[in-house]
Specification:
This protein has 180 residues and is mainly α. It has one domain (4-70, 82-164): Ferritin, core subunit, four-helix bundle (Ferritin), CATH 1.20.1260.10. The chain contains five helices and no strands. The N and C termini lie far apart (50 Å). The structure holds fe (ii) ion (2 copies). One fe (ii) ion is lined by residues 17, 20, 50, 53, 97.
Length: 180
């Protein structure tokens, strides 16, 4: 059975992951409104990945005979003035999430919860990638994104990001096969 302190902080993390979903979906909406559809697509994929993160915590609590209690979601910001501002925010958001993951690890270690450590290690590694991706694009936005042509080139590059297999968020998943 899951330790109560570990359960509580993981339960809070479900909220942070779902808030990440909401943040990235808002960012996708803004990009689409600016005709930056490649960046909008990238953010939609990112948003979907955050729901997978939330469900990893959901399943971990449930599998260890704990009860999940979903909390209210907060939305801090829904409008931006530039693509660069969004990527800066996305990077800052991932740094915030990293601090939350590390706080969970501190509790897990203090409570001697060896069963939680392997799944949490996955998140520690994942956050290195999450920070790297957003920081890299933010930097690219600061250099090649300075001109309209550069920004559209970056936008086209980001359109190539692939959804995890079978994602219900993938618009292609809803396309009818030819001839039907
Ligand atoms: Fe996440
Ligand atoms: Fe993330």
């Amino acid at each position: 059975m899951i330790n109560e302190k570990v359960r509580n902080i993981m339960n809070e993390q479900i909220k942070h992951e779902l808030e990440s979903y909401y943040v990235y979906l808002s960012m996708a909406a803004w990009f689409h409104s600016q005709d930056l559809d490649g960046m909008g697509h990238w953010m939609r994929v990112q948003a979907h990945e955050e729901t997978i993160h939330a469900m990893k915590f959901f399943d971990h609590i449930t599998d260890r005979d704990g009860t999940v209690g979903l909390l209210d979601l907060k939305q801090e910001k829904t409008a931006w003035t530039s693509a660069e501002e969004i990527w800066k925010d996305a990077y800052a958001h991932e740094q915030f999430i990293t601090s939350k993951i590390h706080a969970i690890m501190t509790v897990v270690r203090k409570e001697g919860d060896f069963s939680a450590e392997p799944m949490l290690n996955w998140f520690v590694n994942e956050q290195i990638e999450e920070e790297l991706n957003t920081q890299k694009i933010w930097k690219q936005c600061q250099t090649m994104g300075k001109t309209k042509e550069g920004l559209f080139m970056l936008d086209r590059e980001l359109a190539a990001r692939i959804f995890p297999a079978g994602s219900p968020f993938d618009p292609l998943a809803y396309q009818q096969p030819a001839g039907v």
